[in-house]
Amino acid sequence: MSDLARSPHQIGNLIRRQRKTLGLSQAQLGERAGLRQASVSLIETGNPAVRIDTLLALLAALDLEFRIAPRSRKALREQDIEDLL
Questions:
Q1: Residue 49 φ then ψ, to 5°
Q2: N or C: which end of the chain has fewer CB within 10 A?
Q3: In a 3-state reduction of DSSP, which class is residue 12?
Q4: What is the Cα–Cα distance from 16 to 27, expressed in whole angstroms?
């Protein structure tokens, strides 16, 4: 899986998709990551106040990684501009 996410909502959607692909409930994923089910739910719904260490624990439990890359050269959409604010 290699997808682009530029907002907390998009990150949450990608996490939810991978969790479901693996056949895990939110509680099972939380147990793997050392988090409460409620924390998994908040991340999946795009809560912007998530701590980076919490997000990294969740990604590790899903066998995913966080990468930093330059933005693509295509024109920024209005939603992308809002994400920068």
A1: -95, 20
A2: C
A3: helix
A4: 12
